[in-house]
Amino acid sequence: MTIFARLFASGEKKRDKGFVLALGGGGGRGLAHLGVLDVLEEHRLRPDAIVGSSIGSLFGAMYAIEPDAKKVIGKAKEVLASELFSRLTLPNLEEADQQDGSWLSRLTAAARQSILFTKAATDRAVADTDALIEVAETFCGGESFHDARIPLYITAVRFPSGECHLFSKDTDVKLACAIAASMAIPGVFDPVTVGGEKFVDGGLAAELPSKEARMVANADELVVGVNVGARPRPDVEPKNVYGMLDWSIQIKSLYLRQSKRSYCDVLIEPLVGFTQWHDFSNPDQEIQKGRDAALEKMPELIEKLKS
Predict the structure, then answer these.
(1) Shortest CA distance to 175 belongs to which of 189, 188, 191, 156?
(2) Could you read off the pLDDT of 164-219 as tens digits, one per residue?
């Protein structure tokens, strides 16, 4: 990895410093990463490397392979609207409260939740892990780490021992499998086997992978973090055991992300905290939130790159 970022087009002067971009996990909230990448590109700022956790690994890999934000956004929206993505059937435990109120809607939602609760009590996963790998392949084209035009690092957690692992071109594994492992939320997806070992969601250990970005950065490189983590709504109380467990995870995640802030030279925080992790229904809205947050931080980033 070079010390200097490729911040300008060919033939133009480079800045004195580069930066490593840390893209955090957050499911549907991670669509904001695409807006951040778009703004960085508009300012002709390209990271020296990208470190991604969970959904950040997916969108980070797409951009590392093809550093063209508009093309990445277009492809992401196309895949999100596809039948393949719908096969993931991400669980929504609050579905019964979001129906139109008719008896049929409520009965259907209750039946779906009964099946989900039964599966949760008798199995380790409620969603299709094979579909998760297929989605990762579709998003990124099945390329290897060596095909990335920007050095790429992906976090995952070994199962069941729990160590945080960093996949890169130095580890001879299939890119799509590494991405799927980084997104394999425990209890939603089965652990993903990569290189003979099992891994789960990298966000468990590094929801904001700024420490990992600092580890791979050179001494003169900045770390730019993008935090798209959840924040519990102050006006909504959980209504069941699953809701309480989700709430407790959000609280723990909130404080863990705060501890990772110290590793960032610049921290971008799109206002996506109340978006549900399984909600990918408003990509334009979430992407715009990323753009707004990145635009606000551009003066600070540019100044620090010059200093």
Answers:
(1) 156
(2) 999 999 988 999 999 999 999 888 889 999 999 999 999 999 999 999 999 999 99
How far apart (Å, rounded) are the C-alpha atoms in residues 265 and 175?
28
- Give the up-direction half-sphere exposure of residue 290: CA atoms within 13 A in the CB hemisphere: 32
pLDDT tens per residue, range 234-264: 888 988 876 787 788 888 888 888 889 999 9
Distance between CA atoms of residues 171 and 152, nearest Å: 11
Distance of CA 205 to the CA centre of its chain: 13
CB 25 within 8 A of CB 201: yes
Judge whether 256 and 41 are in contact, CB under 8 Å: no
Q: Is 52 helix (H, G, I), strand (E, B) or coil?
A: strand
> What is the Cα gyration radius of the chain?
19
Structure pTM?
0.84
Rounded Cα distance between 69 and 78, Å, is 14
Tokens of 37: 């990448």
- DSSP string covering 170-190: TS---HHHHHHHHH--BTTBP
ω into 160 cis (within 30 of 0): yes
